[in-house]
Amino acid sequence: MSPPDCERPIAVFDSGVGGLTVLHELLVALPAEDFVYLGDTARFPYGEKTQEQLRTFALEIAEHLLGLDAKLLVVACGSATAAALPLLQRRLADAGVDGLGVIEPAAALAVEATRSRRIGVLATPATVASGAFAAAIAALDSAVHVESVPCPDLAPIIQNGFPFDERVVDTVRRYTAPLREADVDTVILGSTHYPLVAPMLQRMLGRGVRLVSSGEGVARAVERTLAARRLLNPRTTEGEYRFHTTGDVASFRALGTRFLQMPLGDVEPVVLAPLELAA
After folding, report:
1. Is the distance from CB of 106 to CB of 44 less than 8 angstroms?
2. Which candidate, 174, 81, 88, places its Cα nearest to that of 130?
3. Which residue segments constitute the domains of the chain, with CATH numbers given?
4. SS3 category, 77
5. Could you please report the per-residue DSSP string of 138-195?
6. Could you tell me which residues are beta bridge partners of residue 89?
7. Which residues pair with 119 in a beta bridge?
8. 20, 224, 236, 267 — which has fewest CB within 10 A?
């Protein structure tokens, strides 16, 4: 017998382990829920992929997660959200499932936080090229100036692990320079990997600049969506969380523990069905 709808898991996916920063916020905000996380590490990074590739990847992952009986799907990746969210939402609607991305929640937090109406965005080239953050911010406040900086190698550097060396410091300094020159007072961390270097970013941008990551906003959006659909899990004990990866299990577990800041436990390797087979 299938469990009641409210007891089904929330699914979260990202190109790698960066989305675990979003999962961490969800685990804190919604402790009674069950979660399943998929890291598509075999095809990381997403930031250099084409829009068509990203849409294909997102639909393949959605088919896998729908097969796990997910009640809601979170796209914890800026590049995939920018390229594929509307298409993904149409596919999910056919299954009666909501799909949420990371761009609109982060944009809303940034517009709420800015005092000068000058917002910076650090994101992958694919996300910046899509214009998704600028569009989401303009929809909320058309008077805001947005300064977007593509960061082609920052997520891969972070994904490759710790400790960080001077090369990482120099890379971060190079990407933050245009934001300092633009005199922004709020910066969106447009990749879920970037919170891992937030202290470094804060030092280079200055104490007066507010850093906005998507995790907090996504957690709010997930809670509102589930409440509206009467899908919040009523249990009073903590839920469970589990992990799937398309890549190497050992490296996912080792690096993922640092991103999640909690034990990962079992990680299951998966092979995604090609889109034409999953459709």
Report:
1. no
2. 81
3. 5-101+216-278 (3.40.50.1860), 103-214 (3.40.50.1860)
4. coil
5. HHH-TT-EEEEEE-TTHHHHHHT-S---HHHHHHHHHHHHHHHHTT-SEEEE-STTGG
6. none
7. 146, 186
8. 236
- In 3D space, the residue among 145, 149, 147, 148 whose CA is nearest the CA of residue 115 turns out to be 145
What is the reported pTM? 0.91
Task: Assess contact for 234 and 20: CB atoms under 8 A.
Answer: no
Q: Is there a contact between 246 and 43 (Cβ–Cβ < 8 Å)?
A: yes
d(C-alpha 204, C-alpha 68), whole Å = 43
The amino acid occupying position 273 is: A
The answer to whether 64 and 272 have CB atoms below 8 angstroms apart is: yes
Q: Give backbone dihedrals phi and psi of 10, rounded to 5 degrees, phi first.
A: -90, 130
Query: Rounded to whole angstroms, how far apart are CA atoms 80 and 123?
Result: 12
* Residue 2 DSSP class: P
Dihedral sign for Cα 92, 95, 97, 98, please.
positive
